[in-house]
């Protein structure tokens, strides 16, 4: 057990170190963006004087490293600062957006992960038969289409033609749960279709790999049904790569859904980030970037630890 | 006369003409009774119906937006401010001034301006609107440290004062159009001028802000104490920010919203055929431009500039870039929708032979002329640059189209590179348009154009009291810019909105899309 504790501590420390490195990268990245936030905020109606005034007020005239440490100090004390463009507190506005993103990602994952794994198991059971080919074909097709295409097709049929679900997924505080679920039905479906094939194919490949082993043959020889062989003997041994790919897709559901957010007008983190990049709102971009990095790193740590825990050989290293 | 009437009727049916325009023109023909009988049922203006929940979807919003009117720069915040705020004056579709919070205004010499503030008008917080609030508002926007988009209009102010219900402005130099500045959409009158907290949305408009989620939605409910019963018909209004054009169309088609703005010309024709939806377009003052820096080689050569102006096929651009939703430009930033515009100035057309002659005369060495463009310069800017390249090639003028990233285009390319694609949204008056961009001292002189005659005509027009003489001045200025200036204005684009037939009272306004963004206040829902 102490091995696990040590492992977790080690990975967490590495993760935090990585986060610091990422924060430097993010900061450097935001510095080399062309353009200027004051100009972006005021647009064509700005005058040189109002630009100078705004730059002065936003502290854009300080050197970059001073601004970096100033920001880092704020983040460590839980203060993400205020958005340069709108003057709103970043932590407050991110909270709502992050919650929305997690809500959508959660429901997409609740549908997508079990569906992908079950489809993968079925594909293995009937491998190389028509069921396998049908499942693989459909899943690959849905992944191959770009997200915006799937989104528009869903909107066209379910929102415009049959009017079953709303085509715009604007959610707001105090919205009843049922309405909220209805609002995210289409974006969650689109996301499910996008991530499904990756997880399904990985499940199928990982289990098929194990199916070549001697102990599976033994299981078959001792008379277990095909499904029980997969469930009891193949799946537990194939779980590590499956967890890895599931975590990768979960991370994608949280940090990579900006296109789907735009199409369905969903107020999540992606759109929030893009808006602030356009406006050169550096504090917000940094904060969002850091949150995304944290999500990515922690999901990867979880995948790592889960894979080790699931594998007796790694759990008891000699 | 009958054929003229038939033509009007055709244009009305085809949606090229508003009902008001139709009635106006028909009555000019002495046919108002006949006109009324051919109006389609949906266009019959019934009495406004009170109540209901109107939903508007707009593009151009962002989660970085704020309700501080000083930063009012996109369609979403502009729409929001029309709901919750009010200005002293408004510009009507026919470019006249309408009295809003100022019930009277006057100036004897174009230097001292007096605005009498309407009595009995309340802010949403219950306080009365006073001349003092107006003074503080103008003070906040005109302050040297102000970041207001309207600050450029107010730099000429010498002194402000408030006396009883009268707000007085003294200018440093005469300006015949100063009253138009008070209709600028940044200058929403706020309690204490917004100096306490400018972004609350508490102002004197017909709707109270219920929800303010920048880049997502704004919700409004009717302000019961609003002074003008002629506007503000629906009980609740909602502005949804939908930046994706296809998603906006989808929202309208699925009945989730009642009206949308910024319809892509490419889909406007397709939407037109859908039942229950009509396209409302009106030619506006916005125009696409190709500014050349007249102080930078090779554009410092007047003959080369003329060659380029003659080498662009304006009709083709109206046809292919705007799909007919617009009109040709004449290398000046104003058109017939401006007051005091001289319509007798000849229209420049595509003339490859003359262009070739001017090009030869310019002695240009034949190296390709670099034209920078990006998708964000204006809708279809990349295609427009390519069309320009092809039409110029027919005149033997080599243009190299260089595509730049949209991100950062306004700060890195526009007003920095000597030749690029750009866009201007137009201003209520010729003076404002010219002095924002083409005056020698203009803050945004994106063609580096400096012409003493031009400046003199502009200043003279400001202090001139006789409209006929002012018109003459503007005409001279238009000609100077058209023939000597550095800007190519190929087209003026229409505002294109799409509206559900559940909406009554929609009359397009050339000042801006969605009825100068007042559709939420002026329209109503039919059962």
UniProtKB/TrEMBL annotation, chain A:
<keyword id="KW-0813">Transport</keyword>
<feature type="transmembrane region" description="Helical">
    <location>
        <begin position="242"/>
        <end position="267"/>
    </location>
</feature>
<keyword id="KW-0472">Membrane</keyword>
<dbReference type="InterPro" id="IPR035906">
    <property type="entry name" value="MetI-like_sf"/>
</dbReference>
<feature type="domain" description="ABC transmembrane type-1">
    <location>
        <begin position="98"/>
        <end position="303"/>
    </location>
</feature>
<feature type="transmembrane region" description="Helical">
    <location>
        <begin position="102"/>
        <end position="126"/>
    </location>
</feature>
<feature type="transmembrane region" description="Helical">
    <location>
        <begin position="12"/>
        <end position="33"/>
    </location>
</feature>
<dbReference type="Pfam" id="PF19300">
    <property type="entry name" value="BPD_transp_1_N"/>
</dbReference>
<comment type="similarity">
    <text>Belongs to the binding-protein-dependent transport system permease family.</text>
</comment>
<dbReference type="GO" id="GO:0005886">
    <property type="term" value="C:plasma membrane"/>
</dbReference>
<feature type="transmembrane region" description="Helical">
    <location>
        <begin position="287"/>
        <end position="310"/>
    </location>
</feature>
<keyword id="KW-1003">Cell membrane</keyword>
<dbReference type="Pfam" id="PF00528">
    <property type="entry name" value="BPD_transp_1"/>
</dbReference>
<dbReference type="InterPro" id="IPR045621">
    <property type="entry name" value="BPD_transp_1_N"/>
</dbReference>
<feature type="transmembrane region" description="Helical">
    <location>
        <begin position="180"/>
        <end position="199"/>
    </location>
</feature>
<keyword id="KW-0812">Transmembrane</keyword>
<keyword id="KW-1133">Transmembrane helix</keyword>
<dbReference type="InterPro" id="IPR000515">
    <property type="entry name" value="MetI-like"/>
</dbReference>
<feature type="transmembrane region" description="Helical">
    <location>
        <begin position="138"/>
        <end position="160"/>
    </location>
</feature>
<dbReference type="GO" id="GO:0055085">
    <property type="term" value="P:transmembrane transport"/>
</dbReference>
<protein>
    <submittedName>
        <fullName>Peptide/nickel transport system permease protein</fullName>
    </submittedName>
</protein>
Automatic annotation (TrEMBL), chain B:
<keyword id="KW-0732">Signal</keyword>
<protein>
    <submittedName>
        <fullName>Peptide/nickel transport system substrate-binding protein</fullName>
    </submittedName>
</protein>
<dbReference type="InterPro" id="IPR030678">
    <property type="entry name" value="Peptide/Ni-bd"/>
</dbReference>
<dbReference type="InterPro" id="IPR000914">
    <property type="entry name" value="SBP_5_dom"/>
</dbReference>
<keyword id="KW-0813">Transport</keyword>
<dbReference type="InterPro" id="IPR019546">
    <property type="entry name" value="TAT_signal_bac_arc"/>
</dbReference>
<dbReference type="InterPro" id="IPR006311">
    <property type="entry name" value="TAT_signal"/>
</dbReference>
<dbReference type="InterPro" id="IPR039424">
    <property type="entry name" value="SBP_5"/>
</dbReference>
<feature type="domain" description="Solute-binding protein family 5">
    <location>
        <begin position="98"/>
        <end position="445"/>
    </location>
</feature>
<dbReference type="GO" id="GO:0015833">
    <property type="term" value="P:peptide transport"/>
</dbReference>
<comment type="similarity">
    <text>Belongs to the bacterial solute-binding protein 5 family.</text>
</comment>
<dbReference type="GO" id="GO:0043190">
    <property type="term" value="C:ATP-binding cassette (ABC) transporter complex"/>
</dbReference>
<dbReference type="GO" id="GO:0030288">
    <property type="term" value="C:outer membrane-bounded periplasmic space"/>
</dbReference>
<dbReference type="GO" id="GO:1904680">
    <property type="term" value="F:peptide transmembrane transporter activity"/>
</dbReference>
<dbReference type="Pfam" id="PF00496">
    <property type="entry name" value="SBP_bac_5"/>
</dbReference>
